[in-house]
Amino acid sequence: MARGPGLALQSQPLLSLLLLAAVASHAAAEANCTCPTNKMTICSRDGPGGRCQCRALGSGFEVNCSTLTSKCLLLKARMTAPKHGRSLVRPSEHALVDNDGLYDPDCDHEGRFKARQCNQTSVCWCVNSVGVRRTDKGDLSLRCDDLVRTHHILIELRHRPASRAFDHADLDAQLRRLFHERYQLPPRFVAAVHYEQPTIQIELQQNMSQKAPGDVDIADAAYYFERDAKGESLFPGRDGLDLN
Ligand SMILES: *[C@@H]1O[C@H](CO)[C@@H](O)[C@H](O)[C@H]1NC(C)=O
Ligand SMILES: *[C@@H]1O[C@H](CO)[C@@H](O)[C@H](O)[C@H]1NC(C)=O
Ligand SMILES: *[C@@H]1O[C@H](CO)[C@@H](O)[C@H](O)[C@H]1NC(C)=O
Ligand SMILES: *[C@@H]1O[C@H](CO)[C@@H](O)[C@H](O)[C@H]1NC(C)=O
Predict the structure, then answer these.
(1) Where is the signal peptide (predicted)?
(2) Ligand 1 center to residue 25 CA distance, Å?
(3) pTM
(4) What is the pLDDT at residue 238?
């Protein structure tokens, strides 16, 4: 069983995340031509017939603002975002714990990670569908087979020990609802929620045969959640969790 990134999060905003009944509106905001699911985009009415079209920063890839943007495109946008500029999210030191850190990834024509990633230099390695390195590093001759799909992602986070314990059943229901409403992930892909104060584990599971076309990928839902839990929401405006 492949294991996704274990996220060790200090999760102050968790409570506000769970209490956030109102959810990011996923209806494309045609009126104002913005992307409701990805603030790291540039939108304009350049589409056919003046249609609002949004392109990811960094790649120029046209994104579908009715659904989540892929993690690969989001990482790429993050790497190319200006270091200052408070409206853009900045890389934090709490990157994925079992990753080699942030890198500027190569994404394929669907916005997914290419199986082989190289480090601008001649250092290359193979990644899984979450973008995490899964082989030793090699040189440009390194061959990677098809992208290895991560069908099990374990998200681990902690709330402040001092705060009151959650009711497990309640927490389970709230997290499933959050993943469904905010990240459009059907509840059947939330395999389990474990809780032992103050640690919360969320298991996402989704293999290729279970994923219908148009279903959100667990890799992307987990990444949006991670950024939300760190107070670095990828959703624009007030739907973000900048409230703390
Ligand atoms: C569009 O912008 C106008 C004026 O800035 C604002 O009143 C309106 O609520 C916005 N609509 C949407 C859908 O964001
Ligand atoms: C890629 O290069 C950067 C900067 O040189 C480095 O910090 C990072 O660890 C490298 N990543 C890998 C996977 O080699
Ligand atoms: C996908 O998951 C289902 C349900 O857990 C399982 O029955 C099936 O064997 C899995 N398929 C693959 C290819 O792993
Ligand atoms: C955008 O995503 C939605 C939701 O997955 C899907 O129904 C729609 O067909 C997609 N639009 C395009 C142009 O791919």
Answers:
(1) 1-29
(2) 13
(3) 0.81
(4) 53
